[in-house]
Structures are given as structure tokens and as C-alpha cells.
Amino acid sequence: MTPPNYPPKPRPGDRVAVVSPSAGLPAIFPHVYELGLRRLREEFGLEPVEYPTTRVMGADPRERARDLTAAFADPTITAVLATIGGDDQITVTPHLDDAVLRANPKPFFGYSDNTNLLNHLHRLGIVGYHGGSVLVHLGRPGRPHPLTFDSLRAALFTSGWYDLTPAPEWGDRPGDWRDPASLAHEPEMLPGEGWRWQGPRRVVEGRAWGGNLEILHWLMAADRVPPVEALAGSVLVVETSEEMPPATEVFRMLRNMGERGLLTASPAVLVGRAKAWDFEKPHSVEERREWAEAQREAVTRALAAYAPDAVVVFDVDLGHTDPQLIVPYGGEVRVDAVERRISVRY
């Protein structure tokens, strides 16, 4: 197996692209977006460069692909950051110029609907970074979360191994962006209970692949996931979005992945903490615990059928909850079930 292709890292003072390959929500929530840009400058010392569709809702997929391609082609740009996710990036990636991406690999940061681009880069042999967004994480109300920013800083600027840390507190109930005053108040947080481990006590090393479960299911339907043989030995990373698919659907999506052989290929699985609150589903704390437990049971049932010997870690902070840790997509991951430790190489 060829070594993973980690793109060169930016340095403080560099120009970085800020793009909206999915939803152009900076157009609707400029106050959140501007806070994120300010922190990108002040906390990380990076100069954001916008593209024509960055602040446009409903931009043509070909125009969004043009901006992405331009960001990778520009020699003065050293990293590419997504503003947020969305639901139609699957229509954007077919219009990318893969020759340009291969010739100019750069660190790309995004999650959720950006699973499309992370998977696309993975198929081109380029390591991306699952996590980080200008609105959600750089624009977090109140103050940046220290775990998020420490992980993001390490992923942006360093290339060594980094230990992921269980969050001492977590949240999935964001403020209402429609109210600019909400940016003054930190989101509600709940006590952390650590990671939950299942499976054999052994150490697994592999390259990360996966992302948002709903998007992975769409990618399977579009026949855009890598062949099973290319994923053999991968550490599967899965998480669910604010659309909060019920446990039954989570099981079915994983079952479909299992029927394709994608679960058997993975000796270790990292499962993001399930988001269990949304404005349309304002669950109580107890309801959120019950929702998360049902999600864990659904994942356990699917893996028992298709990957019974896998090391499984639940409630890793790598998805749609707060804080968020960065995982190198296509990069190296070590899952140590003996010492109960997860390390990633940025």
C-alpha cells in the first residue's frame, strides 16, 4: 500500500480559501460568518480569501466546483476551509477538475455534506480533514471551545501524532443564529461520560474513511464510494447530522453498507456522539440520553452482523456535537483498545 499523501501544511500568515461547496449560509448569517473569519485571523493568524459563491445561497453546482478548483489551483492558497455543510454537494464533485486537484494537493477541512469532497479527495489519493467549519466552530457563540481549537490548530499546522481527548463536557443544543445577540452566550453543555468501548482488546492501525452516515448512503446510491478492496484495513468513521435519522434508519443504512462489504473491511469503527437535539426536536436531557442509547444499539446490531470482531468506540466527539475533534480523512489512525486511546496523525 502506498503511503498516504498528506498535503503541505499552511503557516501563520498564509492565505487560505474560505468556500461554500454546499450551502451558502454566510449570505443568511453574516454575523456568525464574520465572527468566524475574525477568529481565523486572530486565533490562527491566517488570512481568509473568499470566492464568488462563498456568500451565495443556491449557487449553481458548476460555479461552486469552479471556486473549489480555483482555490486548489492558486499557488498562494495553502489550505481550503468550508464555511458549513448542506445537502447537495453530491451535485458539485462531478464538475471538479481532478487533474488540478491531483497536481495541487492542499489540506481541505469540512464535515457533514463535505463528506462528498473528502471522499472525492480520498479517491484521488489526497488526505483531507474531517471537521472544522467557519460558521459552526470558528463562529461558536461565547468563546471557541478549547478542545476544538487545539485539535484544529494541530491539524492545520503540525504533521505528527495527536491524541484525541474525551470531552469533559459536550453539547448538541446550539444557539439560534437568527438572533445576533445569541453569539454572546455559550451553548448549553452537559457532563461528559467518556468514550464507550466494545470489541476485542487490541490495537488497530489504519487509514480513516467514512464521514456523515447519511451522505455515505447517498454516495453508495451514486456509486461513488471506493471499492471494498481499496478500503481493506480502514478505520471507519461514522456520525449522524442535525437531521437526526432515527435508530431504525441508522441500522438500515449500516446494514446496506454491510451488504456492500464496507463494514467487514474495517477492523475498527469510531462512532461520533449522536446529535439528539434540534429546533424541530427539542428533546429533554433524558430524551437525549434515550435517543443516543437507541443509536448505539442500532450501530451495535449492524456491526454484530457484519463486523463482529471490530474494535468499536462510541461517543467520540467528531461529528455534529460540540466540541469537535479533527480526523485526518485518508490519514493514519491508531485505535488502542488496550490503553483505550485514539491517536491520529495530522
UniProtKB/TrEMBL annotation:
Q: Which GO terms describe its molecular function?
A: carboxypeptidase activity
What positions does the domain LD-carboxypeptidase C-terminal occupy?
205-335
Q: Which Pfam families match?
A: Peptidase_S66 (PF02016), Peptidase_S66C (PF17676)
Query: Where does the LD-carboxypeptidase N-terminal domain lie?
Result: 16-131
Alphabetically sorted, this entry's keywords are:
Carboxypeptidase, Hydrolase, Protease
Sequence similarity: Belongs to the peptidase S66 family.
Looking up PANTHER family in the UniProt record yields:
LD-CARBOXYPEPTIDASE C-TERMINAL DOMAIN-CONTAINING PROTEIN, MURAMOYLTETRAPEPTIDE CARBOXYPEPTIDASE
Name of the protein: Muramoyltetrapeptide carboxypeptidase LdcA (Peptidoglycan recycling)
Specify the species.
Micromonospora citrea
